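Worked Example 4.2. Consider the chain below.
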Amino acid sequence: MAETTHESNRRTLTGVVVSDKGDKTIVVSVATLVKHPLFKKYIRRRKKFMAHDPNNDCGIGDTVTIVEHRPMSARKRWHLSKIVEKAV
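Applying the procedure from the previous section yields the following structure tokens:
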């Protein structure tokens, strides 16, 4: 059999942890730039995602990368991939 490589189609997002109060759960705020349709000016939009943090490593203010994952609860559909930068 020929060996094949399988690339993942999962989305990855980078954002800042705004809450770590839940057990093994973090809330990540992700900012994106969107161009206004009429004024052609870029606007910063923010959205919050709940992500699974299995070891409770993250703290508020950390910059993290999260990846799509199977649903783990009603609102938690992301998984912590890596901590990019720890907060001071």
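The longest strand covers residues 25-35. The two ends are 51 Å apart (CA to CA). Compare this with Example 4.1 before moving on.
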